[in-house]
Amino acid sequence: MISFNDLSLAFGSQVLYENVSVNINTKDRIGLIGRNGTGKSTLFSLINNELEPDSGNIAIPKNYSIGTVKQVLEFTKDFLLEEACLGLRPDQQYDEWRVEKLLTGLGFSDEDFYKDPKSFSGGYQIRLNLVKVLAGEPDMLLLDEPTNYLDLPSMRWLQGFLKNWPGEFILITHDRHFMDAVTNHSMIIHRGKLRKLKGSSIDLMGKIEEEEDIHEKTRANQEKKEKKTQAFIDTFRYKANFARLVQSRIKTLEKSQKLTKLDDIQTLDFAFNSAPFQAKSMMKIKDVFFSYSEDGPELVKKFSLEISSTDRICIIGKNGVGKSTLLRLLSGHLKPTSGEITSHSAVEMGYFGQTNISTLYADHTIEEELASSMPVAYRERVRTVAGVMMFSGDLALKKIKVLSGGEKSRVLLGKILLKPTNLLLLDEPTHHLDMDSCDELVEAIENFKGASVIVTHDESFLHLLAQKLIVFSDKGIRIFHGTYQDFLNKGGF
C-alpha cells in the first residue's frame, strides 16, 4: 500500500495539492484525471522521489518496485531485442521470450528485433521504453498517456495486458474509453485536493458535480438566510423590546460557518467558425497513388472517395501505414504520385496536423501567432479566441517557445477557429489535451456545420463521432459505411 499523508505542493502562487491524504491499496487500478496543469504528471514525479513536497510525505513499502515509462530516449544496445531485455529482472535475464511477447504485442515484427533501436521513430522508441518497464514486472506501473503513440491493435493488446496485470497501476490518459476499460478506481486532482472513488471516471465526475451543486445551493440558501437575519438586526437593533432577539441573531451569525463560493474553473468552450457551403460534394479523390520516393512503398494505392458536405469520417489503422499521409494529400500539403484530388471552389479547409506544432513561430506571442492566421488581424477577435483557448489576459503575451505541447495544440486549434471553415482535417487532435478538453472538442465537431475527416486512435472519439471509416489494413485501404461499433460488430480489422 502507498499512502499520501497530508501532502502539499505549490509552485509560486499555484497550489497543486493541499493537505492531501489518500491510500493506494493492493490491486488498485487507478485512472488519474484532472485538467491540464493540475499536477497529474507532477504526482508521478513525487512518487518517484524526483520532487520533494512542501509538506507531508508519500509512504512506500520497503522493496516495493515502481515502473515508469520514461520519455527520455537513451539506448545502449545495438539491437532492439537486446535493449528491451535490459528491463528484465535479474532472475529472468535469460527469458527473452517474455520480451519477444511484449514487443510483438506492441507492434514490433520479428525482423525488428535485430534492428538498431535508434533507427525507429520516436513513437516506436517510446513503445520500446514501455516494453522495458513491463518486462521488469514491477509492483506498480505509472503510465502517463501510454496510448499516445499506439495504434488501435496495440491499444487493444495493452488493454488486455493491463486487465490481467497482477499488481497496481496509476494511469493518465485522455482516452476515457480506454481508462474505464482497464481501471477499477478513479482518482482526480480537483481544487487542490486528491479524491479517489471506486468506479469509473464518469462515476467520479458525477459525484463531484453532485457535491458541488449541493454546495452551491446550500451556500445560496445560507446567504439568503443571513441577509434576512442581518435585515432583522438592522431594523430592530435600537428597539429595547427586541434587544434579546437581536443579540440572539447576532450570535447566530457569528457562529455560522461561511461556505465559500466555488471558483469557476476555466475550460475550453468553443465552436468552429462554419463557412457556408451550398453544394453536396466537397471533394473527389479518384485513383490516387502516393509514395515518398520512386522506389519507396506506396502508402496510398488506387484510393477513391467522395466527401460530402455533411460527412464525418475517421481514418484508422496501424502506425506507419499512411493515415497522416492521406490527410496531408487531402489538405494539399502533398501531391499525389498519380490520380486526382479535386475540391469544390467554395471549400475552406481547417487543417490540424501532427507536425504543425513545429510550424508555430517560436518568438511570436500567442496573440501574434493567432493574428498571423488572419488576412486582417482584428485584435478584439484574436483576444476573444485566445481567451476561449484558455489564454486570457496577459497569458496571450506568452511566447510560443515557452509553451507545453498541450498549449501549442490549443494555439493551433485557435488558428483554425479564427478562419471560417467548412471542412476540418484533424490529425490526432486529442494528443496533449486533457479529458475535459477532449469532451469539448467532440461537442464542437458534432455541432460543426460542415464535413470532418479525422485521424484518431482514441476509441472514445471513434464511438462518438465516426459515421464512416477509412480503414488502412494489410489488404490495403477500404471504406466502411457505418459507425465504429458497426465496424467492431463485423469483426474490426
Low-confidence stretches: none
The helical percent reads: 25-40%
Mean pLDDT score, rounded? 89
Spatial gap, N to C terminus: 40 Å
Largest sheet: 6 strands, mixed
Helical region count? 15
Based on CA atoms alone, the radius of gyration comes out at: 27 Å
User: Which band does the percent of strand residues land in?
Assistant: 15-25%
The largest sheet has its strands arranged as: 5-6-7-3-8-9
Number of E strands: 18
By helix and strand content, what is the structural category? alpha/beta
- Structural shape: globular
What does this molecule look like?
By secondary structure, this protein is α/β, with parallel strands linked by helices. 35% of the residues lie in helices and 23% in strands. The chain contains 15 helices and 18 strands. The chain has a six-stranded mixed β-sheet with strand order 5-6-7-3-8-9, sandwiched between helices. It has a six-stranded mixed β-sheet with strand order 14-15-16-12-17-18. A three-stranded antiparallel β-sheet has the order 2-1-4, with no helix packed on it. Strand 1 (2-11) and strand 2 form a beta hairpin. Helix 11 (379-388) packs across helix 12. The two termini are 40 Å apart.
